[in-house]
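We treat protein structure as text, and this decision shapes the records that our systems exchange. This encoding replaces a full spatial description with a residue-level series of whole-number codes. Below, we set out a record of this kind in full and without editing:
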Amino acid sequence: MRADIIPRGDVWTPETNEFTVGMLFRDKETLIYAVKLYHTNKLRHYRVIESNPTIWVCKCVSDCRWRLRASTNKNGYFVIKKYDGPHNCLLTVTGTGHKNLDSTLIAKHIMSTVREHPDIKIMAIVDLVKKEFNYTINYKKAWAARTKAIRMLFGDWDESYRQLPKFMSALKDSNPGTIVVWNRIRAANPDEEYMESVFWAFEPAINGFRHCRPVICIDGTHLYGKYTGKILIATGTTANNKVFPLAFAIVGEETSIAWKWFLKNLRRHIVPGREDVTLISDRAPGILHAVKRVWTEPREGIRGHHRYCIRHFCANYYKATNNQLLKDFIWHAATKCHQRRKLNADLQKIRELDDKAFTNLMKEDITKWTIAHDGGKRWGIMTTNDVESFNGLMKGARSVPISACVQLTFYRLVKFFADQAAEARQMQTEGLHFPRDVQEKLDLYQSRGMTHQVIPYDWDNLVFEVTTKFHNNAGINRQTVKLNIPTCTCGKLEIFKIPCSHIFAAAARVETTWLPFVASEYKMEVYMRVWDTKFEPIKHPDYWPEYKGRTLLPLSTRLRPPKRGRPESTRIRNEMDVSRQRATKHCTNCKQPGHDRRTCPQRARIVQD
């Protein structure tokens, strides 16, 4: 019988309140789910009497007449042939648990939630079960339910590896221009091979990045599930300061070899022949070695630039000194001092605070951590927060089998492109000449420029001295503006590639336009080109191109070893995971920092008295 034909009869649905003779179930699994759900709601227990591929019989665990017998009909459906119900016994469920409310029943119940949020918190599942069934399940059962729901939705982990080459082939067939690069290991069987790593990037992202700022943030994060591994991610930043996913790779570990392979693919497929592209990353040894060999000092080919993520840079010094004030000073020196004279003043404060830390800081490449010496290579982007925020969005994809992981990256980028293109069209409809974030900054600088005093020094070369007024606790400052070059001694034009308030003031003084001083990457017509290339839907599996390659297998060395007890997070936590509000302990007794109520000096005096 065809699967799309529904036979006549009373078909069970989750809303069914009571069973009847002749009621139909699509298969045995659905029948068992229905009986479990029934007993969970009725606060009763049942036990199985007989079970085989064609017959399933159960009865109440108490001295009760309730009994159900079902078997298959000629069409393969399970049908209730005999039913003695409802229950006439007393309630058999006491306390907070129900033995028939097992992880399989919960998994089926939460499948729609897990489909949208594969990384749903375990306690959220506990709360959901409490709300739906009025039972409190333990953490282990909720974890098992989520694991089973993922398997039901996204398939088996090992089979997912075998399906991955077929899906990648279908992806490239539906979306020409998609880049997929494999790193495989030959197996003993000539028809099989092991996956070492895989790199992929989508054409809309590759084409769109050509119209973005030439800055790429890179980071890696853990994979969860049956097999260990890391996912490496490269992102850009749009003119409207939104994260722009560029490329992905799944590797075994974040080694220098893995990073070199990833960066070579970035250079070859994402920015081929493009100069002055800047990488921003943390200072993990594997990344630093790979960046030097592939990006900044390659033996041949185009060279790029490298800058440190200042968030990680400051965290390194905090870890070494445990000095929050030092960390704040370094952050301010790195990100807020656009002029070298201001940077020197901050460096002197750091020296007075911790001379050893200052000595170590001076050994660092100053172009890689200070915006004053950056030369505009960062375009004002100081951290890898964008890629880390995208890691958070990818957490669901990191919890599913590998084929589903790649699929989720595809569908999330489809949604991202659709949403951002719609927002860009809306800004264009509103008549904005620049993306909203850029427009707001330009409006702010222009309004400030109206309060500045401008003194011309050289009309032929358009050299001016611009004096600011006292505002926001900042004193009167003088900057030199040269519109012919153009440049301003405040440094913001070189750093951000948009005119500062001093440029606005000087341009107004000579009644000339300031538009040429805005980098083309910020202009609306260029921003619209970011979203020009569209994604295409992936064809139905029946129409996928035939795959004739070897069977892909996971490496057995990456099989995650089983552990007893509550599963542990693989994230390496550091001080960046602790909010500033909670970084310092405050006593609930005397309200003073540095201790808690158990070690409070006032409490000690009270006990002595």
